[in-house]
């Protein structure tokens, strides 16, 4: 499975970054044509700020679903988006719900967010950026877990990849699908690693701005390049 992560928490440091419901929907359509299977987006308000407010989430989901009917779409629940109480209140008030959300297990209120999603029938991607996140995973009730997501930060692949490998080996016995992805310098090495390990992968402007050859690109070109790598046999 290849997920397209269309915008993320990046500032508008690339002309390709989609920041409105219409722009996100257009990129979703292009990414589906390029080989993406599902989507991960960060909704924004009319000022371009990340938002989990019901009206902003609904505007993005409706636009995307109109453009790519049937394509699963998930959103971030990152704790930087809004203060804790207001963020949880916003999510409880959703009228238009995503197919799944991403929850970072390193965040203090991750168990509350996971429980909230179980209550409203939304699947959860479990974001694991550190080996300590695996310890936290052990004590959680996960009736709506969709997959575990090993998320590696930027850095030297030679340093980051062994840690990802250890996390993968600890996660595999749980039986959850595993999505492996990197960021900037580690993004493309982890596309190949995901292929070789039989993991899901994601790519898009949230994770990197450049093609493997170093040239800047938009979401659809990034997805097409990742799909080509994933379709090669190791």
Automatic annotation (TrEMBL):
GO molecular function, one term: 3-keto-5-aminohexanoate cleavage activity
Alphabetical list of InterPro entries matching this protein: Aldolase_TIM (IPR013785), BKACE (IPR008567)
Family annotation (Gene3D superfamilies): Aldolase class I
PANTHER family assigned to the protein according to its UniProt record, in alphabetical order: 3-KETO-5-AMINOHEXANOATE CLEAVAGE ENZYME-RELATED (PTHR37418), 3-KETO-5-AMINOHEXANOATE CLEAVAGE PROTEIN (PTHR37418:SF1)
Protein name: 3-keto-5-aminohexanoate cleavage protein
Organism of this sequence: Paracoccus limosus
